[in-house]
Design goal:
Blueprint: E1 7-12, H1 18-31, E2 36-41, E3 51-53, E4 59-61, E5 63-65, H2 69-74, E6 80-83, H3 92-102, E7 106-112, H4 124-130, E8 133-137, E9 151-154, E10 169-172, H5 194-205
Parallel strand pairs: 1-7, 1-8, 2-5, 2-6, 6-7
Antiparallel strand pairs: 3-4, 9-10
This protein binds zinc ion (ZN).
Zinc ion binds next to loops.
């Protein structure tokens, strides 16, 4: 009988160590003699066929599927199921995940939470809501060197949401991230009237004193 978290998510930008963390957790399940399997969508063409590879050289066997529904076909024997590059699965991954959870499987899914525009990526936000543990990994910003990169910067011009490849992207912190101009925030800040400033000040004065 499985105990602990049933649906774990490992999210973050590129180069944050998501795949190596996924492989590490799957290896731990294997050490506990639990049958495991890792799936990745066919869209991701970077790894060798039938493998998940991390940038630090870790690799594990993976089944490449054309559609999320195929996961149900190949996972009946497994108790712990890994999903890599979850952002590339279609929306039908949501039903598949709910089905697997009802089948009392344990799921560990890794994926990008944001795309190159800084927008939530594919089914990942929905999966986050279904999960019971989330680890958001950060990378090193390739522009300023801080440890807080959470965005994936596209370094070539293209308006395709999915453009697979490592050389076309780099990890950036929120301050160094430059989304394409059409996706930059263009909110006009509302002007505050003198009367509203007075009201805000009086409200602030009524706030309990900081201890
Ligand atoms: Zn930076």
């Amino acid at each position: 009988m499985l105990t602990g978290y049933r649906f774990e998510m490992i999210i973050g930008c590129m180069s944050a160590g998501k795949s190596s963390e996924l492989i590490r957790r799957i290896e731990r399940a294997r050490l506990a003699y639990l049958p495991t399997i890792i799936f990745r969508p066919a869209t991701d063409t970077r790894s060798k066929p039938d493998h998940v590879e991390s940038r630090n050289g870790l690799a594990s066997h993976a089944v490449v599927v054309e559609s999320a529904k195929e996961i149900l076909k190949y996972s009946s024997h497994a108790v712990v199921i890994g999903l890599d590059e979850s952002q590339f699965f279609g929306d039908d991954i949501i039903e598949v995940v709910m089905t697997l959870l009802r089948q009392r499987k344990k799921l560990i899914a890794a994926g990008l939470d944001l795309d190159y525009r800084g927008k939530p990526f594919g089914p990942v936000p929905h999966l986050l809501a279904l999960s019971d543990r989330v680890d958001k990994l950060l990378a090193v910003c390739r522009k300023c060197g801080s440890d807080f990169a959470s965005r994936t910067q596209r370094t070539v011009q293209s308006s395709e949401q999915i453009l697979v490849g490592d050389s076309e992207y780099e990890a950036r912190c929120i301050d160094c991230f430059e989304p394409p101009s059409e996706f930059q925030l263009k909110l006009d800040l509302p002007k505050t009237t003198a009367q509203e400033v007075l009201l805000l000040k009086s409200v602030a004065n009524q706030m309990p004193a900081q201890v």
